[in-house]
Amino acid sequence: MKRALYLLGLLLAVGAVVALGYFFRYRGILPPLAPLAPETGTLPPPAAGGALNSLPQTGGSASASGVPSPLTSVPVFSYFAKSVSDFVFIEANGHVSSFQGGKTAVVSASDIDNLVEATFSFDGSRILIKERLGAHSFQFKLFDTAQKLWMPVATGTEAAAWSPNNNQLALLSAKGSYDELVTIDTARASAKPQSLLQLHVSDVALLWPASSYILLESRGSAASRGTLLALDLKKKTLLAPLTDQLGLDSLWNSSAIRGLLFVSDDRGGGGRLSLVDQSGASVHDLNFVTFPSKCTFGLLPQGASSTAESLVCAIPRDQEGLSLRALPDDYDKEIFSTADDLYRIDLSRGDLTPISAGTGAFDATKLSLRNGTLFFVNRLDGKLYALSIGK
Prior knowledge:
The chain has four helices and 29 strands. The protein is mainly beta.
């Protein structure tokens, strides 16, 4: 009890975090906030293709990989793809289907009236869904695709995220006067929740990009500021890479040492995009705008025998139009749609090159990379698309 009170006092003394009003008191296992060690180095200058601060003009798709092809005939809410011939998807009504051997099979026909979120475990064997029950109430449920079984998730769960390399779930749940962050192994029926942290939060999302880091993101809007906290599971420390960011939204690579950060423009419209390191410091400011939901990190071939980490993004063609919007709010609320071109940023060489530009009508979101193939959901028709970019 004395240790908990001591830690609480230390954390309350961290004025920068307290002043934000997002995270007021912490207690339990954590020592005081500490900064992350910055990632060394910056992006190199471009070796070929376009500079990172300008979009190459292709005049069509001649220098791009090709045109994305639809994989489904029905709208897709979320998906997990191993290849273009092996994937699982969930529709907005909650129905789950799989595609294998050239055939689509219904895995679950249970209706979900107000589906808000659906995320897949690292191997696609389980789906976590968030369903709206009322104006301010939600429930989470878990679906086992092998057993074709829906299971309840703990009452009071406010946010959740899958481990990147096993079937563990991180759950943030209300516990009366505080919130508790726990992990639980969904692959073991007898598994008990393992408590990691007790804190007071409001309206946060959980991210688990790397095995050793769980992120708590209080996402901002065009009119409110957000904060990103990182829990180091090995050192048992709570870190604050990003604080007081207007319109905060972020995406992180698989080691959580490199991120893509979107913030709203405080002049009233548009936004800014930058690559950041583990400490939240900018590595490279970009002078074009897109959203983290329209990007994905992954390994792609570099030359004949090597791979390199790349960032693939769907970048709206109408950059000027974005500057007139309240971002990210207007896009998230689907007040407008975008017409995108697909680009690859080679993070080891600093190249920005088109992979599909000037053709097709795509408002791409929920991107993922698997074995040199890019998958995404097109908001214009709701279908799942794929494009081979690994050659």
